[in-house]
């Protein structure tokens, strides 16, 4: 079954991540449209460890995000 934003990606973003991006990034990590539109930039930050700002995601979560992008970024 393909990955989906609602089931697989949205739960990866904590409330404080969402609030930080609303305040500093100008988009909402809880909204499919915003994450889909910015997915490559988000992936780059996740992969280089600069997002989230309090510590890098585990490689397994980064791989889930990458796979979601590769599968077409399903809602």
Q: How would you sum up the major sheet?
A: none
The helix count comes to 5
**Global geometry:** globular
Topology as H/E string? HHHHH
Helix share bin: 55-70%
| Average residue-wise pLDDT | 95
**Portion in beta strands:** under 5%
Name the poorly predicted regions.
none
Kindly provide the radius of gyration, computed on alpha-carbon positions and rounded to a whole number of angstroms: 11 Å
How would you characterize the overall build of this protein?
Helices cover 59% and strands 0% of the residues. The protein contains five helices and no strands. Helix 4 (39-48) runs antiparallel to helix 5. The two termini are 13 Å apart. It is an all-alpha fold and 75 residues long.
Short description:
This protein has helices at about 5-10, 15-25, 30-35, 40-50, 60-70. With about 80 residues, the chain is an all-alpha fold.
Salient structural properties:
mainly alpha, 5 helices, 75 residues, 0% strand
Helix/strand layout:
Elements: H1 5-9, H2 15-25, H3 32-37, H4 39-48, H5 59-70
Helix pairs in contact: 4-5
């Amino acid at each position: 079954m393909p990955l989906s934003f609602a089931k697989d990606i949205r739960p990866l973003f904590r409330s404080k991540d969402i609030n930080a991006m609303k305040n500093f990034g100008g988009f909402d990590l809880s909204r499919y449209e915003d994450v889909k539109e910015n997915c490559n930039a988000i992936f780059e930050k996740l992969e280089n460890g600069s997002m989230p700002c309090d510590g890098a995601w585990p490689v397994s979560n980064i791989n889930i995000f990458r796979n979601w992008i590769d599968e077409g970024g399903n809602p």
